[in-house]
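User: Teach me something about this protein's shape.
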Amino acid sequence: MRTSPCTALGSNMEFRSARQAILQLLRTVAPADLPVLLEWMRTTRDFDELTQDNNDIMLKNIAEDLRNCLPLETMLSSEHLALQKIQQRPEPTIQVDAFLYDEDFIDSLCEEGKMSRNYCMVCGSHQTAPLGFISHSFSLMELKFIYHHVLPDLSGKVLVDVGSRLGTVLYGGYLYSSALQLYGVEMNGDFCQLQEMIIKKYQFTDRIKVLHADICTQGSLLQNADVVIMNNVFEYFLDEAEQARAWEYISHNVRKQGSLLVTVPSLEESLSGLQVNIQLSPWIEEVPLNYDVYPEKDIDRDALEQIHLYKIL
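Assistant: First, the predicted structure itself:
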């Protein structure tokens, strides 16, 4: 008995059988509707959940590779200013990279005595009051939120990550989007080497390029970008005068009409306290985001609400 496409698709098949069943099904579509269906198949995100498990596994493998190359606090001795600024915060704060260490991983480290969530308010040891945590990378959940729910289809688009650090935005963009090209701009040569190691190992070289440079030398790249992402990018790594200079440069060069800017925290918060002459209303318009796309109780909604999307006017 001949198997119909719908019957065939209802059982588990190997690739060749599945392909044949899909082609057979497509032959039954009305000719006038076939181009629309093929376009939908090419651009839809309805298939994301079928592939995201493998992508999640790959990103977790990348995180493991990076953990093996870095100290627990994920800070390098070459990051003098960032280390100093973290030490100067009013409450004791430690850097814990959200991409490398999720909540479950931190819990296991605490159980092993390798990390503490608390400190003693009297003597400064890690025992009684909550420690502050800061991350300069997006978590896996935040990456998925950005590429699945914040940004539109990126087919044919160029994305620039300012201060790419460990490269998490680039790897997430490679796996979770169809972006034509993903550029990371990073001033720290040690982090550039780490990114190059991952890009080569996982064969991302066709779409990812890392530039060891100051973003203030990359005007042409910014002017042609369709998406620019900035995650806690200047506050801990530049003094206030350098931050102001960098933001002025960004505002003068990220001007492509309709392009998108993703920031953590908001532009208003990033610019507050800096001596800059940047008028936001003629430059950008904030795009409201739906932070309720993940109903799970264990989702860090506060972290998602730090993500802001702007459209360039």
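Now, about its shape. Confidence is low (pLDDT under 50) at residues 1-11, 118-122. The two ends are 61 Å apart (CA to CA). If you'd like, I can walk through any region in more detail.
User: That's plenty for now, thanks!
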